[in-house]
Every structure is written in structure tokens, then in C-alpha cells.
Design goal:
The protein folds into 3 domains: about 45 residues, no CATH class; about 150 residues, 3-Layer(aba) Sandwich (Rossmann fold); about 100 residues, no CATH class. By secondary structure, it is α+β, with helices and mostly antiparallel strands. The protein contains 7 helices and 16 strands. Bound molecules: guanosine-5'-triphosphate and magnesium ion (MG). Magnesium ion binds next to helix 6.
């Protein structure tokens, strides 16, 4: 069976509209990967988490080390899902450190994850983009691995394939380059890459987070939403009721509080001091803050509040909105 070296899908030459199509079975890449890599032209695919859960169950049959990659900017509410299926030792990798402000304390970020019921051996904060802490991560992978096989898992878009490419680039002669993109489900099936005789990394497709904004927004808007460089947080002190609109995506009604927005700086933010009708047609969430809590709008970012108070959020139905203790 020939597999695409970019996404792991089984190659086929019969059905143009089905995953894995290529016009020549001897090609190394499927047509979809070829287009992503050469034209940045992404064909949206819908995947089912049940296939992915089977992959996790099979990893659980091994005793091998698992590298769990979590996007620091987009931490899912459902991270504990991984512990449902995996009892392997886990090296937690907090990715995309370059997106959060430099001033954040790495130790506090790591400590934040102690609340999850995951079998964490150790934590490393990285940025594949900036090559931050990759030596430390590579050493820890070699130190903790039980066999020469190490699995890389996580939610879709957390940066698994980018990390593997970077490890290959830094520490290996293997010049394989897995397909990456900022859209979900880029990796379709497991891909084994040999780093050296003692280490094989196995990339896996990402678990889909159903409440992530990525599933509800036109892909042309994603460039605005997904930050690609360090976020400059925006702080507001609200003394009387104010309304903050973020593009046509989110409406925030705040009554007396201090808040800081951690979102892409490409988004248009408008602030109103009197009542307006805009975006009230979206789904409404009335939230009570107990002090030092963030409101997360999955995939869009988060809003840090310091004080107790009431907040109303309007956002497209389906996008997950939840509270958590302050990350930063
Ligand atoms: N800013 C920043 N972006 C990153 C970093 N690592 C990955 N990305 C970006 O995140 C997006 C997703 O990366 P992928 O490596 O395709 O993510 P994945 O986890 O393999 O995704 P799936 O294959 O869909 O499960 C891409 O646009 C990457 O360029 C990083 O360290 N910093
Ligand atoms: Mg991938």
C-alpha cells in the first residue's frame, strides 16, 4: 500500500473527489498535499473523531512514550479526553509559545496544567517557529522513550506535524516534510518518520474540537483570527456598561470590570459606551465571574478578567464559550 508522505492517506488513482487521489500512484504526495504545499490551496475535509479514537486505543496497547502537543493559545476544554484513551506516559509539549506575550512566566504556564487528569511525566514549553526549547524537548524525548517509537498526539492544528518537521530539520538527515496548514485535519492518517536508528516519531491526525471557531468561520477569515506572531494584549477598564464588538464575530457586554483581550491583533475591535443592537442575533451567554477568571472563546482567544462581575457574550451558536481560572 502506498501512503502519501505529506498526510499519511492511502494513495488512490480512481476517485478524484475522494481523499488520497493522485494521477500517478508513483507520486509521493496526494493531490491535496501537493496543492497545499505548492499553492497554499487547501481542500477542506471533514473527519470523524471515531477514526482517531481507534488510533489512540492502538497507541494505548503499546507502552510507548506519547508526546501530547497542546497549543498554548488554544487550550481545549476537553484536554482530559486524552486520558480516557491513553494510559501511556505523557510528555506534555506546550506549543506556539511565540504567540503569547514574552512577559508571561513559563513556569506558571506549565503549572496551569497540573489541574488536568493526564499522566504527565514532564512538561516542555516550545515554539517550533522560533526554535525555542527544541534541544530540551529532543533530549527529553530520548531520555523518557521506552522503545524507539514515540507517538505525537494532540488536537488538530496544535502544531504536531510542524514540530516533527523541525525535529527532522534540526537533528536528522531525513528530509521528509510532512504537510502542515492552519486549517483542521491536515494530517489524515498516522505517518512514521525515522529520525535515526534509535528514534521513530509517529505523527497522528489531530482530534477535532467541535466547539472550535475554526469549524464555524469561513476559511478566508481564519487568517485574521489565527495569530501568527506575538499577541499584544489590549486592556480596558470598564466603569459603566460598555459593549465591545470584535469584527462581526463576538459581542461582549461588560458591567464594571478590568479586562484584557488576548486575541489576534488583526481583528477589528470597536468599543461603545451606549447600548447598540449589533450582533444580538447571535447566541447569548450570561456569565458570572468569580474573580481572576478568563472567558475562553474556543479558537478565537481569551479575555482575562480580574474582578468579580457579570458579562454577556454573543457569539455564533456552536462555538464553545467557557470560564477557566486565569492562564496568565
Ligand atoms: N506561531 C506559531 N505557529 C505554529 C507553530 N507551530 C505550528 N504552527 C502553525 O500552526 C498551524 C498548524 O500546524 P500543523 O503542524 O499543521 O498542526 P497539526 O497539529 O499537525 O494539525 P493536524 O494535522 O490538522 O492535526 C500551522 O499554520 C503552523 O504553521 C509555532 O511554534 N508558532
Ligand atoms: Mg498534522
Amino acid at each position: 500500500m502506498c501512503k502519501c508522505l505529506g498526510c499519511g492517506v492511502k494513495l488512490q488513482t480512481q476517485y478524484k473527489d475522494i481523499l488520497g487521489f493522485t494521477n500517478n500512484i508513483n507520486n509521493k504526495l496526494c493531490e491535496r498535499c501537493f496543492k497545499i504545499k505548492n499553492y497554499n490551496d487547501y481542500k477542506y475535509v471533514t473527519r470523524d473523531n471515531s477514526e482517531y479514537i481507534e488510533i489512540l486505543k492502538n497507541i494505548n496497547f503499546t507502552n510507548d512514550l506519547v508526546v501530547l502537543v497542546v497549543d498554548l493559545f488554544n487550550i481545549s476544554k476537553h484536554l482530559d479526553e486524552f486520558s480516557k484513551y491513553l494510559s501511556n506516559n505523557i510528555l506534555l509539549v506546550l506549543s506556539k509559545r511565540d504567540i503569547l506575550p514574552k512577559s508571561c512566566n513559563d513556569e506558571n504556564l506549565s503549572n496551569y496544567f497540573s489541574q488536568y487528569k493526564i499522566n504527565i511525566l514532564d512538561t516542555v514549553i516550545i515554539s517550533s517557529k522560533k526554535n525555542y526549547n527544541l534541544d530540551e524537548l529532543y533530549n527529553k524525548i530520548n531520555m523518557y522513550k521506552i522503545s524507539n517509537r514515540v507517538y505525537v498526539v494532540g488536537f488538530t492544528n496544535s502544531g504536531k506535524s510542524t514540530l516533527i518537521n523541525k525535529i527532522l530539520y534540526n537533528y536528522s538527515d531525513n528530509n521528509v516534510n510532512i504537510t502542515t496548514s492552519n486549517l483542521p485535519s491536515t494530517t489524515i492518517d498516522s505517518i512514521e518518520v525515522k529520525v535515526n536508528d534509535d528514534l521513530v516519531l509517529i505523527d497522528t491526525p489531530g482530534l477535532l474540537d467541535e466547539g472550535d471557531i475554526i469549524n464555524y468561520i469561513d476559511s478566508s477569515k481564519l487568517k485574521k483570527i489565527i495569530p501568527c506572531k506575538e499577541i499584544k494584549p489590549i486592556t480596558y477598564q470598564v466603569n459603566n456598561k460598555q459593549i465591545i464588538l470584535i469584527e462581526d464575530i463576538l459581542r461582549l457586554d461588560v458591567y464594571k470590570n478590568d479586562l484584557t483581550l488576548y486575541m489576534s491583533n488583526n481583528l477589528l475591535i470597536r468599543r461603545y459606551y451606549e447600548d447598540i443592537k449589533d450582533l444580538k442575533c447571535l447566541k447569548k451567554y450570561d456569565l458570572v465571574l468569580n474573580g481572576k477568571e478568563d472567558i475562553v472563546i474556543q479558537g478565537l482567544g481569551f479575555i482575562k478578567f480580574t474582578k468579580k462581575g457579570k458579562v454577556t457574550i454573543y457569539v455564533k451558536e456552536g462555538i464553545e464559550v467557557f470560564k477557566r481560572k486565569n492562564l496568565i
